[in-house]
Amino acid sequence: MKRVTIIGGGLAGLIAAIELAHAGIHAILVERKAYPFHRVCGEYISNEVVPYLNSRNLFPESYNPPAIKEFQLSTIDGDSKIMPLDLGGFGISRYTYDNFLYERALSHNVEFCLNTEVTSVDFEQGAFRVKTDHDEWKTDLVIGSFGKRSRMDRVMNRSFLRRRSPYVGVKYHVRTEHPNELIALHNFPGGYCGISNIEGGKSTLCYLTHVSNVKRYRSIGEMEKNVLWRNPLLKTIFNESEFLFDKPEVINEVSFETKSPVDGHVLMAGDAAGMIAPLCGNGMAMAIQSARILTREAIPFVRGEIRREEMESRYRKQWNDEFSSRLWRGRQIQKLFGRELTSRIAVSLVMSIPPLARSIIRNTHGRPF
Ligand SMILES: Cc1cc2nc3c(=O)[nH]c(=O)nc-3n(C[C@H](O)[C@H](O)[C@H](O)COP(=O)(O)OP(=O)(O)OC[C@H]3O[C@@H](n4cnc5c(N)ncnc54)[C@H](O)[C@@H]3O)c2cc1C
């Protein structure tokens, strides 16, 4: 058996570790933080993952996650329309769900190095040398599941970093009056804000904004009052909600640039392979599905049944077949919604032609797997 190291323990890394464990393969998962912890994420998971989660007993039934079946879209001025969500989804916080998967992985004897950051990976003579801030070791396969932006991208000199990204993501948990079955996407100048419910009667309020909004008003709070609150629906939500964090979770430079599913012989999964615009509401499902596809190709390599080149080319093909056109469509939609004028036109069009909304959702999502 070859040795496997997984860098990053979000959904992609945790699912990869669990899948390998199911095949009797031992992996070391290195995660910069320690569970449980919050992340910037809208926390709406598309139902396309449910058959897979059920097959592995990974659906978080015991947390009673709200079933989400309707979608509300609002213009910058607060006009809104509610439409059915064909496939729908469920809401659960990453704080809870990642920790749930971590405990499952532990029970399958996955080895974790927590509070540990991988600082470099070098491929020489058919194997990798992995260095962390504590230690170093040799490994035969590295899975890169280190998310949308990591020190590893710089260390590996990944080309998407050459273009700066103008988007900032912000997340809160709140208590508010929000229907359980509804996910809302409220537009504001230079961005959009989602709200949907999660476990424990809480809601996730999460938005993506252009960095120019933050620079202009200097603080997140001032920007929210001057920019987000121009949408009256958002103003009401902000004024009538109880905010449960001392301060918001914030990430900078959220990039939707094309990446590569295999880079320097590292097999990438989740956002490290490519990130879809959050308004598509599909990044978590893609992280789970890409980890599953990746491990399917990695298992015969680890068992010595196929060569590295064959594993890499099979994974590259599978990943491109499944995700590259979805990501392209997500990028085009993000371009429309990132600017005030095009966003006004796009939202009005979608609201006046409901089948268009259904078609966009269908074309940015996969089929249940
Ligand atoms: C504003 C916003 C809203 C979103 N809303 C939704 C939504 O509602 N629904 C949806 O499906 N998707 C949503 N997404 C997308 C979704 O959050 C991601 O697609 C998903 O989290 C990807 O999972 P991942 O496992 O690839 O990465 P992550 O969950 O980001 O995990 C990566 C992990 O790697 C670790 N790491 C990084 N570098 C290192 C290193 N060098 N060493 C060790 N560990 C490292 C990090 O600490 C992290 O834990 C949203 C994204 C944004 C930005």
Description:
With 369 residues, this protein is of the alpha/beta class. The chain has a domain at 4-40 and 93-162 and 255-343: FAD/NAD(P)-binding domain. 36% of the residues lie in helices and 26% in strands. The protein contains eleven helices and 18 strands. The longest helix is centred in the C-terminal third of the chain and has 30 residues, at 308-337. The relative contact order is 0.18. The site of flavin-adenine dinucleotide has 42 residues, from helix 1, strand 3, helix 4, strand 14 and helix 8.
Number of helices: 11
CATH architecture classification name of the domain at 4-40 and 93-162 and 255-343: 3-Layer(bba) Sandwich
* Attached small molecules: flavin-adenine dinucleotide
Q: Provide the CATH top-level class of the domain at 4-40 and 93-162 and 255-343.
A: Alpha Beta
The CATH topology of the domain at 4-40 and 93-162 and 255-343, please? FAD/NAD(P)-binding domain
Helix coverage percent of residues? Answer: 25-40%
SS elements, strand count: 18
Our estimate of the beta-strand percent is: 25-35%
Q: Termini, distance in Å?
A: 28 Å
CATH superfamily of the domain at 4-40 and 93-162 and 255-343: FAD/NAD(P)-binding domain
| Helix/sheet category | alpha/beta
Q: Residue-averaged pLDDT, rounded?
A: 95
**Biggest sheet, open or closed, and with what strands and sense?**
9 strands, mixed
Q: What letter string, H or E per element, gives the SSE order?
A: EHEEHEEHEEEEEHEEEEHHHEEEEHHHH
What's a quick, concise take on this entry?
The chain has 369 residues and is α/β, with parallel strands linked by helices.
